[in-house]
What does this fold into?
Amino acid sequence: MSDGGGPSTLALRTGAVRSWAVRYGRRAAGLLRRTPFPRPTARGWTVLGSGIALVGGGLVATTSIAVSAGLLLLVLLLLGVVMALVVAAPLRATRATARAVVQVGEVYRERITLRGTSLPIGPRTTLLVREQLEDAFASVSDAETYALVGPHEPPAVLDVEALAMHRGRTLVGPVTIRVEDPFGLLRIDRPVVPAEEVVVVPASTTLTAIDTGALAGAVSADEGRVGQGGSADDSELRPYRQGDPIRRVHWAQSARRGELHVRQTTQAQPPEAVIAIDVRRESYQALGRDDLAELSDLGGDAAFEHAVVVAASVARALSARTSRVVLVSADATGASRHTGDAGSLTDVLVGLADVRVRSDARPVTEVLPEVRGRDVHGMTAVVTGRCTAEQAAELVTATSGSSRGILATIVPPDPVVRGILDRAGWRTLVVPVAGAQNPGSTR
It folds into this structure.
């Protein structure tokens, strides 16, 4: 007995054992809840049916040997259940990948690490580890392997490489393991790593020296807009735009002119750029076989996919010459905006991965004023399949507040369209698909 009426050593040890049992019991129960119950294989169903038949027949015929043989088969099946659960329940796995955004044509790489039980005793078994890949990827290496797990075994590693084939959001995973008992009677398929989203952004098409010159010319004209002509006060002022900081308002000049004006620094700053992609299906269905022999599909889907690649190419080219690039496209409810930070195109490219061609989309001329009037004060690049004279006139009117613009098409526009855009100070950039009959040009 202990002095002073305190707890005895036996009671302390009993409490410690109870606490250990409760803690590990809860952990085991959690592992079992996450582990599917074993399913019999073809051999397992045969053994189960044979065992039940022998037991039933032996009881009817009062044959103890048949009953014993049937019970032995059922016990063997039960032992297989226990061994499969013991192996599958404690398995843990992790997925390590360099990035969750890849480009079409690039290889997505990841590493799956599988660890077995941490107990010093337990069964050793070979199991199948498999990673699930959707149609957006084409597997370069095997996405499955056989791994040996058990006590004192090093973690099993599965390196997966897959080529990104289509833009968009896709899922990688889940990672599943398949465990079978030593007798081949039962099987457990358990997910050990949940599925994760991977964004596949569009690739770029080659821009020739003429195309690059058109982009540089439009940006240079926009940079030179600030500080040209007029007095010093005039060169430092411009009309107020929604979103401008109130501290930049020139109150004296605003009162004299009758409308709000803000101070504009005379130092040339890299402009901001809007890239608007036309997602109306009719803009891409109008492409005839004479224009693009390879894109004359009735739905315009192939032509639109090339337009997305053109938009990504223009965005990458403008990111080196502007402080910020904003992507805007229309959806059924309104404008969908994706803003790219200075020096980073991740948001813009992710936005291009999400755009889809639709029959009910709003025209670009209705979407652009909403974005430009709010927070964009630089140049405009519009990407479309084909532009008519009416659309060109509406486009110039909708972007009259911008100094320069670029119309990027995948088929050469009519001379009338070129004339409308040239008079408004716009550049025309044609980026045809490789192999098209009309090579196009850039002005």
